[in-house]
Amino acid sequence: MSTLAVATLHQALRKSFATLESNQKVWKSVLAECSPLMVSLGNLAEQSRALSNVQISNTPLRVFPDLEERLRFKLLEATDIVLGKLNEKMSSLQSARDAISNQVAAILHLYEQNTHSLDLLAVTERSTTTPSVADMLEWLQDAERHYRQQYPFLSSVLDVYVIFWYFFPLTLVFRFLRRKTLLQTLRADDLSLLESAPQRWNSLESPSAEDHITDTLCKVSFFVESQ
Amino acid sequence: VDEVRITNRKSAAITGSARKIKDNAADWHNMMLRWDRLNEDGFMAAASIVNMRRSCSERSAAAQQFFIASTLFLTTAPCVKTSCVTSFLVSRQAAVVTKMDRLMTSQRGVEDLEAFQFGAEGRKTPLFHSWSTREFGEISQVLLDSFRRELLLKQTILQEVAHTVTSDLCMVFLSGWLHQPFIPTQSRLRLEALLLETGHRPL
């Protein structure tokens, strides 16, 4: 009874680790593709800030009265394109996270179904090549939790960016309406927020947790390969 | 085989105004591509001027402090060289605009000819699919105007970029150079419409 349940669990664990490994690869490569996009977001915010700081009418560019408006529009357009690309990346991250979560939920469900036929020994027994069922379940849950927590952090950086970026032109309108005091503080804040988006993004990436998952995958590699 | 012969015959049959307009459309396409390439190179050169200018001002401050004239010369020499490169690239862009201007003149010529041939109401059947001859001129005029203004912007930036010290203004110069504020994104669509109408792109 117990050996059958353990064999079933082992089979499911192999599948789960395979899913984890492939989705970890996806996650890493998508994150790597995001970095240059975040850098361009930061650049665009910097350009936008420079444009706001410069009084065009006091520069040699005064012969182009509509320059500021046109350039701002172009910057918005460029940002739109980058944000669109980042959105696609975020949905790839989301589906990688969902694949891992679903797999882990399924294996925990399977474990719960079989608890009556699994005694403590069967769950904690391990060999040189096969870690115990309890350990492996724990590792899977750890990995799942990492991705589940990581995703909203990353997407929040983008959300904040989107909100400020699209409201930024509004703050210019308000500035025009001479509601200075409040909005000048807001302006300095939101622009630095926009410019620091890439740094915050990078700080959220947690290489140590990623390494931990890689370690886990190494620990189970013999187990996954043995059939 | 029949189809190929028909299309061949059709394209060979294009003469006069239609031929002229079709060739002009191809030239517009090539000119705009050349402009974009020059613009990219120009941006690189302008960006390196700004960077050099920044390090120049730091180093020349140090040089002046110690009265080292040769250092001053060494730091400004690459700046001057890159300025030359940039101004060469802008002059090439100016040449592109001159050619666009010529395309416009030839378009006006076609229109005048049509006015002479068909009177005020123009020709009955369109030259290609649906556009009247005047519409080609309108599109060319819009494109020409935007490139003219953009060229003026480039020339203004070129004059100022090496003498500007405030970093925000330098950033605005570079960002203006890169994003081409006077060439609207629709220009690309206008060109595609022109290419579709004249049969360079399959419908």
UniProtKB/TrEMBL annotation, chain A:
Keyword annotations: Membrane, Transmembrane, Transmembrane helix
Annotated TM spans: 153-177
Lineage top rank: taxon: Eukaryota
A GO CC annotation given for this chain: nucleus
Name of the protein: AFG2 interacting ribosome maturation factor
Organism: Oreochromis niloticus
TrEMBL record, chain B:
InterPro entries reported in the protein's UniProt record: Cyclin-dep_Kinase_2_interact
Domain of life according to the entry: Eukaryota
Stored PANTHER family: CYCLIN-DEPENDENT KINASE 2-INTERACTING PROTEIN
Protein name as it appears in the record: Cyclin dependent kinase 2 interacting protein
Organism: Oreochromis niloticus (Nile tilapia)
